[in-house]
Amino acid sequence: MHDDNVYTEETLFLDVILPVPIPQAFTYRVPRDLNELVVVGARVIVSFGKNRVMTGLISSIHNKAPQNYKAKYIDEILDESPIISSHQLWLFQWMADYYLCNVGEVMNIALPSGLKVSSQSRIQINPTFDSPELLSAEEVEFLNTLEKNDSLSYDELKKFLGDIDIAKFVKSLISKHAVILYDAVKEKYSPKKLKKVRLKRVYEGQEEILNLIESLEKSSKQQEVIMTYVQLIPFHELHEKNQVGITKKDLLDLGVSPSSYKTLIEKGILEEYELTVSRFGEIRKDELQGIHLSDVQERVSNELLEKLGETNTVLLHGVTGSGKTEIYIDLIKKALDNGVQVLMLLPEIALTTQIVNRLRKVFGDAMGVYHSKFSDNERVEVWKGVLEDRYSFVVGVRSAVFLPFENLGLIIIDEEHESSYKQYDPAPRYHARDTAIMLAHKVGAKVILGSATPSIESYYQAKEGKYGLVNLSERFGDAQLPKVELANIREEKARQKIKSDFGSTLQAAISQNIEKHEQTIIFQNRRGYAPYLNCEECNWIGSCHQCSVSLTYHYKEHLLICHYCGHKEKTPHLCPTCGSGKIKSVGIGTEKIEDDLNVLYPEAKIIRMDLDTTRSKNAYQQIIGEVESGGVDILVGTQMVSKGLDFDKVSLVGVFDADRMIYFPDFRSGERAFQMLTQVSGRAGRKEKPGRVIIQTNSPTHPLLKMVIDNDYHGFYDKEIIERERYNYPPFSRLIRVTTKHVDKTLSHAAAGTLAQRLASKLSKERILGPEKALVERVRNQYIFEVWIKLEKNKLNIAATKAFIREQITEMSADKKYKSVRFVPDVDVV
Ligand code: ADP
Ligand code: ZN
Ligand code: ZN
């Protein structure tokens, strides 16, 4: 026994990172007999507060007892060795400092939830219970069951108690002091098991098996089971293969009698066992394909390698369809041959489907895939795979940057300009590209950024010589860049007096394409049927009761849905204000486009890809598969269809409405619009088919559209960078936004105002903008105000300035007046 109050040299304390939004570290004490077992980077279970149990990560081990509280003991150690890499603790801290959040919040996002344990209520008999006379007959029966099982979880109770009100039943037992409830912790990850069956070892020999079959002469059904088994594993292989056996399912699927099967198990002739298997299908080595680069690609690949010798980060500016993936593959292979690990980041799941298929053909099972549509168990498997060195190459989305690589040599960030690399909510509001570059810098890895439309920030770094720059300006093979035309939608409508929102140019082009059996993509960055409903009599507009936005009309579900808070309501038949029946939908979403297309081209097969049609796990794959197989004439979708997809037969892309993108009130809207239009145009014309792009607009003279038509990235960049410099926007400054949220509008505004003043007092007024109302002023009844902080580069000590901002937020959050206000900092807002 150790004395709780005496600390000796041997008393160990742990600083533990816990997934809570509180800035300080939490110190726990190690029971002496566990001293030898604690290592930095391993998980421990600790109690936190009165009755919460949590998984934490050991961030340091030391002898310093905390000053102002008595350290609790840890409850359990979950790992013998670290589950994160040595650099990760550093990265977590860097992110917390840089993105103004807490290290616990970083850990919470970084670890797949399968690595965090949950606490689960279990019940057991109260050992001091001695009043059985209080119990009903049912309760007595239940206690007998409980005694046999030691303890039961709530889920297990259901099995024993059936349909009764379990909570009430248990409550009654607790009130009689017959049982006690306690929290047990349980690992959420469970490896996938396969039920397998094999012959008991004594029957493995040829003679033995024949004797066995003979001995079952009288029970023909059992004999059949054994005969079927030896069909699946032939005699002469029995000796080597019996131990592996076959799956129970395979055997039963062949129609043998399940009850005879059971008898054979009971008799000890067959035995069942469980095999832990990978959740990912396996691919045979001899099915793997090589790659063959074109001369141009070869040259570019070499140039990239050369530049990586000079700088750590290189930007590959390669037009759509130039075959950047093949170049990545070449470089990944070379890196793997050098014995280092490789990480490839992709911005979104929609994009991963095709690229992963392509990479899978080259790398097979040596490649791990990590994304958010995977189940927890699948994610833990990849995590462990990296830890145990089964995967030296992983392709994944944003959060893959947290995987526990120990020997990372190369990070590839495809479509580096994509804003979905930035996490919006919850904290850490990190940019995966920037984080990856930081990580690479720390561990000495190289970074390749790839894009047909690089972000202004990255291109600027390249021009300044901080990044290397490699250009690839031709498409692979004989493919040409598509021809982009504008359709002046206002003029078309006036001239033709058409009601439909499809201009005649686009309509004719779609008809032609259907006749030629070629495919079309129609892009509209707005889901649902229509952005709002409007009463023609009184001008009522359906809007969300808890957000300051209109409700989007969804036709198929016949619902009005808020795209900010998810609120849904039935579509009214009559105007809720004046009772008129003249309600019409205004504006156009993907669902309406799909509907209109069905009317215009009744013979065509039309498919839609947007958030609403891709909620299930395999939805993307199915839609993309259908388009690839050629069974689809028209694919309608939101920005999901604009990115990275590569379809042979798409020869026409229609942009339904370019104007909303161009005129969006944000300093990045020009950049976004140029990228989006160029990317979506890039889907047209692969392989031998030349592509055509039709952009519908009301402002055909807009200079940005001309640059899209000319595929003039440089012209676009030159113009944009001048604007950025003039108004001191990134890359010339860093932008931090702090939003305040509260149900009381005045309070939220006052909090933002006070914060702005405090910040200005030290940072000067010029650097602070606001408070301003957010573009959407109210979401979920919370009023949102913003304070913008613009910090010019190279003049300020950024780290100290951030610490100052954090301090101000912390102080205000502690102030009685503003305690209930939420302050949300977002660094490098995109
Ligand atoms: P990007 O990502 O640059 O837009 P992709 O990597 O999608 O371009 O390549 C465009 C098309 O060209 C794809 O269908 C791809 O399979 C094909 N391709 C590119 N390079 C090669 C190559 N070396 N060998 C065979 N096919 C290639
Ligand atoms: Zn009305
Ligand atoms: Zn809402």
Compact overview of the structure:
The chain has 830 residues and is an alpha/beta fold. The strands form eight sheets. Strands 14-15-13-16-17-12-18 form a seven-stranded parallel β-sheet, with helices on both faces.
Molecular structure report:
The structure is a single chain. With 830 residues, the protein is of the alpha/beta class. Helices cover 34% and strands 23% of the residues. The strands form 8 sheets. It has a 7-stranded parallel β-sheet, sandwiched between helices. A 6-stranded parallel β-sheet has the order 19-29-28-20-27-26, sandwiched between helices. The chain has a 5-stranded antiparallel β-sheet with strand order 2-1-4-3-5. β22 and β23 form a beta hairpin. α11 crosses α12. The longest helix is centred in the C-terminal third of the chain and has 19 residues.
The largest sheet is: 7 strands, parallel
Structural class: alpha/beta
Strand content: 15-25%
Strand order of the largest sheet: 14-15-13-16-17-12-18
Helix count, per DSSP?
26
Please compute the radius of gyration using only Cα atoms: 32 Å
Tally of strands: 33
Report low-confidence residues grouped into runs of 5 or more.
none
Fraction of residues in helix: 25-40%
Mean pLDDT over all positions: 89
Cα-to-Cα separation, first versus last residue:
57 Å
Shape: globular
Bound molecules: adenosine-5'-diphosphate, zinc ion
